[in-house]
Automatic annotation (TrEMBL):
GO terms for cellular component: plasma membrane. PANTHER family: PHOSPHATIDYLGLYCEROL--PROLIPOPROTEIN DIACYLGLYCERYL TRANSFERASE, PROLIPOPROTEIN DIACYLGLYCERYL TRANSFERASE. One of its GO terms (molecular function) is phosphatidylglycerol-prolipoprotein diacylglyceryl transferase activity. It comes from the Bacteria. PROSITE patterns: LGT. It comes from Staphylococcus pseudintermedius. GO terms for biological process: lipoprotein biosynthetic process. This is Prolipoprotein diacylglyceryl transferase.
Length: 121
């Protein structure tokens, strides 16, 4: 098992690193703009953050922390995996509310041929 203080420490460090790496990941995909406007790089309210960068940063920091504490990273992964799924779900709600990251219209013929069930049209 893990000591509660260790889990709080790793949580705080990983959240901090995840926010920074999420922003840097976002900035890298808009690099031309941010080279022209470097003052906006730390302004997360101008553009945002990307969950992929946050996951990469938190994973790297968590792996490093496990190495320093002589823990197996998979044990820590078992502890944090449910929170990652929850965070992803909350993020999707945000995408829904912002009208982003959703699919386009689907024709009726798609549903008929793909989702045909007994008794359906």
């Amino acid at each position: 098992g893990f000591h509660e203080d260790d889990l709080v420490n790793i949580l705080l460090v990983c959240v901090f690193v995840a926010i920074i790496s999420a922003r840097l990941y976002f900035v890298l995909f808009q690099l031309d703009y941010y080279i022209q406007n470097p003052i906006e790089i730390p302004m997360i309210w101008h553009g945002g953050i990307a969950i992929h960068g946050g996951l990469i940063g938190a994973f790297a920091m968590g792996t490093y922390y496990c190495y320093r504490k002589n823990w197996h990273p998979f044990q820590l992964g078992d502890v944090v995996a449910p929170s990652i799924i929850l965070a992803q779900g909350i993020g999707r709600w945000g995408n829904f509310m912002n009208h982003e990251a959703h699919g386009g219209p689907v024709s009726r013929s798609f549903f008929v041929t793909t989702l045909k069930m007994n008794g359906s049209l």
